[in-house]
Amino acid sequence: MTQARLDHLAATIGYRFTIVTNRPAACPAGAARCFESEIAITVPADGPITAPVEIRYGFVNRVLAVSSDVFEGRQVKGDVNALALKPGQTLRPGQVYHVRVTGVGAYFSRNHAMPNAMLVAPGLTPRVIAATRPGTDPDTGRETLPFVAPMTDEAALAGGTAKDRTMWRTPERAFALYAARGAATPVDVAILPTPVRASRPAGRPVDLAGGLRVTTTGIARDDIAAALASLPPGQGRVPLTIRQQSGLAAEGYRLTIGDGAIRIDAADAAGASHALRSLAQQIAAEGTTLRPLTVEDAPRFGFRGLLVDVARNFHSKPELLKLIDRMAAYKLNRLHLHLGDDEGWRLEIAGLPELTEIGGYRCADLTEATCLSPQLGADPARTAPTNGYLTARDYIDILRAAKARQIVVIPSFDMPGHSRAAIRSMEVRYDRLMKAGDRAGAERYRLVDPADTTRYLSIQNYDDNTLNVCLDSTYSFIDTVIDGVTTLHREAGAPLTTYHIGADETAGAWTGSPVCRAMLAQKNIPVGKLGAFFIERVAGDLAKRGIRVAGWSDGMGHTDPALMPADVQTNIWGGLHTGGVAEAHAQANRGWQVVLSIPDAGYFDMPYAADPNETGYDWATRGIDAFQAFGFMPGNLPANGALIPDNFARPTPVPDTVPIDPTRSIIGVQAQLWSETVRRDDQVDYMLFPRLLALAERGWAREAWEPPYVAGQSYALGDPRVDRAALLAEWRDFAGRVGVQLRTLDKAGVAYRLAPPGARITAGRLEANSEFPGTPIEYRKVGGAWRRYAGPIAATGAVDLRTRTADGRRASRIVTVRASEPSSVR
């Protein structure tokens, strides 16, 4: 095998991935749940393959078995698996070889397939198989995976087990769903999130055609400059008076429009900014002639957050800056930046250049001496958008942009698990300094005990992703990172107040570490307490710096509250049906600051709906559309069982086994966008919007349909204590407001998700509807020209439909409805 031959093979070999069934007759190795898939390899016609060539492919689920006459399989690292020729086997020209791969769990979306499989041969540079590269749909602008076969057999693929009642959201089911929710209310007050109070007093409208004349009292104009920039430009005749006013709740404001003037009374700069954003939204809806309006408003929660994961797949500084401005528009005030994980380290840290030189990139270097291995279908090209990091200057710019919009940035580097990027980077540093004869320098920041014989496997299939919590060098490393981040925040004028250590999903490490055995003997603690020991120590170190520790609830819950600082933030990520309610209440009862990051309503890396063509993991929920996020009740967590079924679409009750202390409360909500399947910036937009608007609503406004919390009460699907009629009424009002906001998102360059239309053909007539008002629907006879849908039309046979943005620039994916008669559309 030569490099030229390998390059040619990578360019010409065929590769097709098919999900066969989520309900096989039996699972190997005693697994309780599994699925079967197939990789079809088509050999080029210009010669056999006998050399030792491997196909390395991404497969997120753990592989249980590989069945093939010619290939044998093995796991490499993380989601990377390999197919190698069995001894004595030859791949013959022009032949198609089928490899059956059985995995743990279920496979519900064709978009879970990882692109950029590689050919690997000893001594040669690996090459991406061209057939596995992603493409781009010219109409939607979304990433496509041409090598993945369509998923069309609902009976075999929609559910993972016999007890799973999940059904795909077909156009017919979507039509019924949207019809049941009802038509959107015509928009009067367009402000989103919905204000606490809004009224239309009598008086003359305000004509803004001549521009605004801004004066401020008690609030520095520089502190609200970003919000002022959201208004129409120009210095004009209409007075806009902004003044600080005592007696208002934090971030609260009073906006008065009428009699030729606009007045804003605000508690603080944040309140003034929120008022200006509300004014901008009303202008977007009404134009420059505003009818009299009075708004009194303040947030329900002081913490209204968004997590963006740039570690698994990198996302650019311009994308983050765009998100910060959208966060401000919808009054979100915490940006949780996930900057370090197994697959990448994304922030430059002074004194530790290897973190970004190695940890910021995934490439085809199988030795990992110059980069990390290409996990999660990463393109190994150094310039690929999934590669990269934020320089110190980038991060400072992000901090300053956030501060100008009253948004606090919370940096996150997951530890002690989820730390493979840091570990590999520091091992490269260790090797470099050892070769230079600097043993002390090499060992200063080493994160592993080389004599550790522990064997473990993390949930993401890594056996080398956990820091050794018994090494002094581990804490030297963490101190250097924290000090480096603190310096960047100080330079930006945005002091570091909260640092998120992750602390979740730590595998069973350290049992075979001599260093840990010595420390355990000295401190007289069991090995099972080492994870808690790590969290308690780092939390204390942060507290000494005046920085609040934050972490994920599973790890934080293992600590001894008496050994933790008084000021602790915990993000609850347990599911509603899997213990998250008890966890939230128990940790609030510790006196900690509880932020609800509940996956069933806030994990926006989950799909919008149960559909094989939607993107996103589905371990927590088969779908979160804007309606489900809108209906979330953060003040009465068990009550969510009345609206949200379990992950098998069953009406499972949500109990309250650990009541919350009446003196304790939740401090806020946070949306999460983990990026394992999000490889492009436009996919960030797609996964976040428009459902982030619903989460922003829940962080700001209290629900009229939310019943008062009563300790010990449980709720099951359809429970009448949750007023569904009131929910639907407020949803219809919210949907009208979203219809206005979608036009604003278009102007801001946000590639939000366009839900495909609901549609049905009944008695020879095509009917269609959309999730939000003002979304144009188009239809065509399959293969014909697109037409604008204006109402029911005569149709038989098969009809394609899609929605389109109001500005006409983007379309949704296409759905098809069918009738039994020969196709015709009039």
Could you walk me through the main structural features you see in this protein, from its secondary elements to its overall organization?
- InterPro entries: Beta_hexosaminidase_sua/sub, CBM2/CBM3_carb-bd_dom_sf, CBM2_carb-bd_dom_sf, CHB/HEX_N_dom, CHB_C_dom, GH, Glyco_hydro_20_cat, Hex-like_dom2.
- Belongs to the glycosyl hydrolase 20 family.
- Keywords: Glycosidase, Hydrolase.
- By secondary structure, this protein is α/β, with parallel strands linked by helices.
- It has 4 domains: 3-157, Immunoglobulin-like, CATH 2.60.40; 165-192 and 725-826, Immunoglobulin-like (Sandwich), CATH 2.60.40; 197-297, Chitobiase/beta-hexosaminidase domain 2-like (Chitobiase, domain 2, 2-Layer Sandwich), CATH 3.30.379; 303-724, Glycosidases (TIM Barrel), CATH 3.20.20.80.
- The chain contains 20 helices and 36 strands.
Topology (elements, then pairings):
Layout (H helix, E strand, L loop, with lengths): L2 H10 L1 E8 L12 E9 L11 E5 L4 E5 L3 E7 L2 E6 L10 E9 L13 E3 L6 E2 L6 E2 L6 E2 L9 H4 L13 H11 L15 E3 L6 E2 L4 E6 L7 H4 L9 E7 L8 E6 L2 E6 L2 H18 L2 E2 L2 E5 L5 E7 L7 H13 L4 E8 L2 E2 L8 H4 L34 H12 L4 E8 L4 H16 L3 H6 L27 H21 L5 E5 L11 H10 L6 H15 L3 E5 H4 L11 E5 L7 H10 L3 E4 L2 H4 L23 H5 L35 E8 L7 H8 L2 H10 L23 H24 L10 E5 L2 E5 L7 E5 L5 E2 L4 E4 L1 E6 L11 E4 L5 E2 L1
Parallel strand pairs: 14-15, 15-17, 20-21, 20-28, 21-23, 23-24, 24-25, 25-26, 26-27, 27-28
Antiparallel strand pairs: 1-2, 2-7, 3-6, 3-8, 4-7, 5-6, 8-9, 10-11, 12-19, 13-18, 16-17, 16-19, 21-22, 29-30, 30-33, 31-32, 31-34, 33-36, 34-35
